[in-house]
Amino acid sequence: MVRSIWRTLDPTVVRNVSPIALTAFVTGASFGAIAVAAHIPVALVCAMSLLIFAGGSQFMVVGIVAAGGSLLAAVFAGLLLNARHLPFGLAIGDVLGRRLATRIIGSHILIDESVAFAMAQGDRRKAKAAYWTCGLALFLTWNTGTLLGALIGQVIGDPSRFGMDAAFPAAMFALILPALKERKTLTVALLGAAIAVATTPFLPPGIPVVLAALGVVAALPTRQKVAA
Amino acid sequence: MNIAIVLALGLGTYAIRFAGPQLRNRITVPPRVQMLLSMAATALLLALVAVNAFVPGGKFGGWALLGGVTVGALAAWRKVPFVLVVILAAGTTAVLRLIGVA
Questions:
Q1: Where are the transmembrane segments (chain B) (predicted)?
Q2: CA distance linking residue A117 with residue A36, whole number of Å
Q3: Is A196's Cβ below 8 Å from some Cβ in B?
């Protein structure tokens, strides 16, 4: 399984995954530094990155805890933020393979980036290789970054100083751009994104992004058009 | 903060991740639904882009962030290599912040 992935490994995928993996390293390091500054023990900080492996929810939990919020509320908020992984899994499920063992491991690396990389590929074989390459690379850099950040702490400072917050949306956009060339998909995605941005000020984090799936109504004609 | 919280969020997140592929493999998805699912996933990804560019953390994220993402998006649209798209986006935002753009 793994060997067949390395054999089909596209050098383009490796080249494209590299800057995202580097971004994850820097962001992971800043997560480690911020979490340690919030008086969370280094071992626990590393356990978060290993076991949760979802940056947004990790930052959120540390933020809530640092602000003296309730721990249960932090878990609930984190789960809401990660709810989008369910529709992502439904959309790319077959990329993980049919064997239970690979799906058990593959599910843990189901993150925004691995999903976007898989969906950007033309065929299933390439999608599989891209998914595993991206997921495993980011698991490695996110966790080593976290450990380094937790150990050297405050030195790293704010990752937004390096514009790391702009890297993620720009990279995602580049990955989905080919899919947006299809008109119906573009309409659906624009409607979904508009719904998400418009509802963000009013709903808990994570929910607006899931609501973007409602954009598919744009692809549901109530009646077949009469041939023109 | 304790290990129980980490385990709860970790296991919960894993369950969400495991459920999607599992459901997908249990049921046969008609081609039309498959197409809609893939469109919905693209909509979710574009929503992630938009929310993180315009309103990260629930409010306007500032002109430096928006400027960097816009430069990156334009570069992607002009078929600039992926690596450069990422560097241009992060670099533009970093420079804008350095010169005092909020």
A1: 35-55, 60-77, 83-100
A2: 32
A3: yes
DSSP string spanning A47-83? HHHHHT--HHHHHHHHHHHHTT--HHHHHHHHHHHGG
Residue A113 CA to residue A127 CA, distance in Å, equals: 12
**A189/B42 Cβ within 8 A:** yes
Cα separation of A58 and A18, whole Å?
A: 23
CA B99 to CA B102: how far, in whole Å? Answer: 9
Which two tokens mark A39? 């008086």
Name which of B43, B9, B19 is nearest A218 in CA terms.
B43
Whether residue A130 has pLDDT greater than 70: yes
Provide the mean pLDDT of chain A.
89
Task: Say what the pLDDT of residue A4 is.
Answer: 59
Indicate if the pLDDT at residue A203 is higher than 70. yes
CB spacing of A212 vs B1 below 8 angstroms: no
Q: Which residues of chain B have pLDDT under 70?
A: none
Chain B contact probe: residue of A39, A49, A90, A200 with most B CBs at under 10 A? A90
| Nearest chain A residue (CA) to B38 | A91
* Minimal-distance CA residue of chain B relative to A43: B3
| A169/B91 CB distance under 8 A | no
A4 burial class (0-12, 13-18, 19+ CB within 10 angstroms)? exposed
Residue A51 in tokens = 């076991």
What would the pLDDT profile of A144-199 be if each residue is shown by its tens digit?
A: 999 999 998 766 667 778 888 999 999 999 999 999 999 999 999 999 999 999 99
